[in-house]
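hey can u check if this looks right to u? its 316 residues, i copy pasted from the old doc so theres a chance i mangled smth
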Amino acid sequence: MPHPAPIYILASRCPSCGAAKSRASVTAYVYCDFCGALADYDFRRACEQPQQMPGPVYRNLVAALQKKTAAALAAGDRSAHRELQVKIYEAWVDACPSAVPPRVRDAEYRRAYIANLADAGTFAAFDPESIALSERMNAAVTKLQWEAGTIGKPARVRAGSFEPVLETVLASLDHALSDAVQAQISPQPDAASPALQKRMAQAMFVQGWLPYLDEASAHKLLDRTGLAQEYLSVAPVEGKGGICGHCQAPIAILPGARRSVCDRCGHQLRLDRPLTCDGCGSVLLLDGGGAAVNCPSCQRRIERIAVPFTWPGVAT
């Protein structure tokens, strides 16, 4: 019998529980296989998919709200500005699903995610240092020098002219993720540390600019941002099989795992509290909320009872 082909996973450990990544992440957002915490951002995975553009619905909404946004800024009305930011980010999440965490499919998480972005955007719009950094960024981008592209190859930034843009981005991230600024906005819904948020923001920035840089500048950018990561070749990890009680996606439960994030619907599932449907026998994994649930496979109503679950064939 042939052995399964090896897979490559980002060599990282969960900052919350310390567990090593054991399964390849379906998305660029890497969630821990054992505790379900946001653990890393897989830059290589992000680059495997073409960048997704927002589309006309999003662009038309932003254009329609520009005058209102400008009026809120001129009046110093932070509340009105934040309401507009919420509308813009709601549209952006819908327009670019591959650019956001898979957990945005969970309504509660989505609200918290958009609130965090709206708060950050509003703070930056009124904060003098953020405004100065934005002006510095605009000036750096204006001074970029470009070399014409050829057939099949895009135009490239001339070596040396990109560094001021990079330095401004890093300075902006340091300011935005400082304790003083973070204390004034709603929490990041995954409780990601400033260091992890910076890593993710840098990865998104690098992904956007990498195609326009020469090889030497690209390597320098990856080294400067710490994204020249190592990937390990591992055999596929098998676990006990369950299904997501919200969307029916198959879920592999690794030994010792307590929580995991469903890549399809975004719910953070309790792996240590599964339910067995007495109608079809499915092992259901849920987010821990509610006292009853309809089985997604056979629609039988199942009520939670305080009886410990054991996997078939496992002695207690």
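The longest strand covers residues 268-276.
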